[in-house]
Amino acid sequence: MKKVLLPVDGSECALRAVALVISKRAYYANPDDLEIHLVNVQAPLSHDITRFASHEQIADFHREESAKLMLGAGQLLDAAGVPYTAHHLVGPVAESISGLADSLHCDQIVMGTHGRGAFKELLMGSITLKVLHLSNVPVLLVK
Q1: Among 14, 88, 91, 137, who pairs with 8 as Cys (CB 3.0-4.6 Å)?
Q2: pLDDT per residue as tens digits for the range 97-139
Q3: d(CA 9, CA 12)
Q4: Domain range for residue 101?
């Protein structure tokens, strides 16, 4: 069974990566041989915020934000009848993605890149570059 990790952040690029994995699933003799893991990683909140909220409130906030950002990807997979497992993480984004791929023994990471102008590309592309650097498995980038 091939395991694919799909990091999603609610962006159009992430949804294109999900759509690509759905379309490639048809190439398998048995489409159920593809195990899909969606992940959204929330950056930790600063101490300036966390000191005024309980651990439970912070966890609920991260869970709700993650669920919102995964909604579109989940809807695409559900509409295509593709089973998946959702993972909601909090931590450094690139490290969390590559660490989850390792712990799940994924064969590949498929992720979107952001094409929203040079400055944002530099900022958001840094996560993509870091995943490429840290990953022990092949990374397919979808523009």
Answers
A1: 14
A2: 999 999 999 999 999 987 444 444 444 568 888 999 999 999 9
A3: 9
A4: 2-142
